[in-house]
Amino acid sequence: MLKRSLTLAASSLALATALVSPAVAAPSDFVGTWVNKDTNTRGITRLVITSGGGNTLNIQVFGKCHPTDCDWGSTSLVTYGLNVQDNDHTYGTANYNQGFSNNILTINLGGQQVMLQSFTQFLDNSGRQNYYSRDYFQKSTKIKFPVDIRSFPIRPNR
User: Fold this and answer.
1) Are the C-beta atoms of 93 and 80 separated by less than 8 Å?
2) Which of 3, 100, 102, 136 is 20 to 30 A from 122 in CA distance terms?
3) Which is nearest to 116 in space by CA: 32, 35, 51?
């Protein structure tokens, strides 16, 4: 009876653990357009992450500018698991050297949201202080249609 109770308890625990375990994230889970949740941000507004083939990724960053956002260009995004055997990649890093500053970006993927941490170091002897920022981005679900989609008039059936 005790053995049966222990077996049942162990089975229940294994099932519960399987049900609450997070899904494995692959580097491809980073791919998409990510928009800053703070619509009034004065920093990074958007991230566009694309596949570079295989398990390589590229990231394109856009910062707040007027009248349109500034394109920082594209660079590689390296993803990481928690240890050498972990293929559940939920972390990433990218580096942008813009001449006057160097920006180290870290990304933490959590479902349909990423947390971006940015470490900015000024290289231009301007006297500006290096700084850190943290922003949260959500995956964009907007569908873009080509500009040349033709509209057809709707005619009633007779």
Assistant:
1) yes
2) 136
3) 35
Classify residue 14: in a domain, yes or no.
no
Biggest CA-to-CA distance, the chain: 77
Cβ neighbours around 61 below 10 Å, total: 23
Who contacts 105 (Cβ-Cβ below 8 Å, separation ≥6)?
59, 61, 93, 94, 95, 96, 116, 117, 118, 119
Q: What is the CATH number of the domain that holds 121?
A: 2.40.128.30
Nearest 10 degrees: Cα torsion 71, 54, 108, 86: -160
Within a domain: residue 133?
yes
Range of the domain at 70: 27-139
In a domain, 2, yes or no: no
Residues near 98 by Cβ (< 8 Å), separated by ≥ 6? 72
3-state secondary structure of 2: helix
Chain segment 95-118, per-residue pLDDT in tens = 999 999 999 999 999 988 999 999
Question: Is 18 inside a domain boundary?
Answer: no
pTM: 0.73
